[in-house]
DNA sequence: TATTGGATCGCC
DNA sequence: GCGATCCAATAG
């Protein structure tokens, strides 16, 4: 069975919708001749100037420019000097938005996701496609999908104003 | 040019 | 609770 990477059509939509629908999809990593697939279990949505918890809250900077770029590309950044965080860009080109991949089945936490899959800023701005070695597939069976239950909470450890902190833009597969 | 602090993790 | 450890962002 041929498996296809989800492309621009999937990611160039409302960030909240993409975030929710990423749960139950698979993050696939190919490196060193080996391919591994992980069920996505936890994500968070971030947008632009309307979202004070977002890196893009104050416009474009060197770090966040990928968030303004084409959807379906990776936004990776270094946090606390030692961990990387992986995001997939959403919305139309020019509209800053992304979904943070916070957890996978068996891998809990955004820093650990990147450590486990060997993700660094080398993937910054690269497409979610087989060509980059990191992409997303819809592998779940119909039966599995019927069993998915989604929990929605406030985002973890974010800054910004109270309004942004209160938004329940974290999605977790129960 | 200098200072600050973060979408984290693991150990105390 | 707190230190590790880097560098982008911001202030000056």
Describe the structure in your own words.
By secondary structure, the protein is of the alpha+beta class. The protein is built from five helices and nine strands. Strand 3 (74-79) and strand 4 (83-89) form a beta hairpin. The chain is globular and about 45 Å long. The model has no long low-confidence stretch (mean pLDDT 97). It binds a DNA duplex (12 and 12 nucleotides) through strand 3, strand 4 and helix 3.
Indicate the topology.
Elements: H1 8-11, H2 15-22, E1 26-31, E2 34-46, E3 74-79, E4 83-89, E5 98-104, E6 107-108, H3 110-117, E7 134-137, H4 142-147, E8 150-153, H5 162-166, E9 170-173
Antiparallel strand pairs: 1-2, 1-7, 2-5, 2-9, 3-4, 4-5, 5-6, 8-9
This protein binds a DNA duplex (12 and 12 nucleotides) through β3, β4 and α3.
Distance between the termini: 28 Å
Give start-end ranges of low-pLDDT stretches: none
Radius of gyration: 15 Å
Can you tell me the CATH topology? 3-methyladenine DNA Glycosylase, Chain A
CATH class: Alpha Beta
Order of helices and strands: HHEEEEEEHEHEHE
Write the CATH homologous superfamily. Methylpurine-DNA glycosylase (MPG)
Distinct helical segment count: 5
Taken as a percent bin, the fraction of beta residues is: 25-35%
Query: Biggest β-sheet, characterized?
Result: 9 strands, antiparallel
Categorize the overall geometry: globular
């Amino acid at each position: 069975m041929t498996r296809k990477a989800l492309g621009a059509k999937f990611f160039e939509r409302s960030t909240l919708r993409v975030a929710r629908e990423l749960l139950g999809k698979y993050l696939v990593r190919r490196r060193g001749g080996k391919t591994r697939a992980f069920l996505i279990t936890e994500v968070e949505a971030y947008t632009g100037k309307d979202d004070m918890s977002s890196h893009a809250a104050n416009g474009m900077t060197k770090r966040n420019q990928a968030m303004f770029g084409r959807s379906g590309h990776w936004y990776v950044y270094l946090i606390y000097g030692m961990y990387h965080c992986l995001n997939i860009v959403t919305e139309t080109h020019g509209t800053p938005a992304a979904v943070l991949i916070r957890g996978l089945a068996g891998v809990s936490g955004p820093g650990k996701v990147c450590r486990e899959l060997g993700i660094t800023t080398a993937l910054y701005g690269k497409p979610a496609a087989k060509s980059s070695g990191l992409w997303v597939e819809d592998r779940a069976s119909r039966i599995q999908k019927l069993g998915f239950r989604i929990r929605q909470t406030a985002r973890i450890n974010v800054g910004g104003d109270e309004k942004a902190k209160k938004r329940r833009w974290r999605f977790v597969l129960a």
